[in-house]
From TrEMBL:
Residues 2-130 form the Alpha-macroglobulin-like TED domain. The gene is Pzp. SUPFAM superfamilies: Terpenoid cyclases/Protein prenyltransferases. This is PZP protein. PANTHER family: ALPHA-2-MACROGLOBULIN, MACROGLOBULIN / COMPLEMENT. It comes from Eurystomus gularis. InterPro entries: A2M/Complement_sys, Alpha-macroglobulin_TED, Terpenoid_cyclase/PrenylTrfase. One of its GO terms (cellular component) is extracellular space. Signal peptide: none annotated.
Length: 130
């Protein structure tokens, strides 16, 4: 359909820009995964991996310029909803591929899922409603 084709063209143009926000890259990676644009999906995921925060055997993304968290032995703060959302979009982009994700992608996705799981509140929900 022409509307979808035009939307994808717009996203491809935006993806070619040098400076995209990490949240924008996460959304575009998932959109390209859904559209079956494998090369664009992989390129964005490669760029996102360079910006990943790898800590305690898990992986997530945070907004640039965010103050580092203070490690307190008795308190674990939860990430803001935007960070949970963008990390979830990266996870979806890793898992939404044809054919099925490779073993390497599944291993990396499990590290992302570990972080997302750690963000659950005591009732099983998240700070985000997305």
């Amino acid at each position: 359909h022409s509307v979808v084709r035009n939307a994808l063209f717009c996203l491809e143009t935006a993806a070619a820009e040098k400076e995209n926000h990490v949240y924008t890259k996460a959304l575009m990676a998932y959109a390209f995964a859904l559209a079956g644009k494998e090369e664009k999906r992989k390129a964005l995921l490669g760029s996102l991996e360079k910006e990943a925060v790898k800590k305690d055997g898990s992986v997530h993304w945070q907004r640039p310029g965010k103050e580092p968290e203070v490690d307190l032995p008795y308190y674990r703060s939860r990430a803001p909803s935007a960070e949970v959302e963008m990390t979830a979009y990266v996870l979806l982009a890793h898992l939404t591929t044809q054919p099925a994700p490779s073993q390497e992608e599944l291993s990396f996705a499990s590290l992302i899922a570990k972080w997302i799981g750690s963000q659950q509140n005591p009732n099983g929900g998240f700070s985000s409603t997305q």
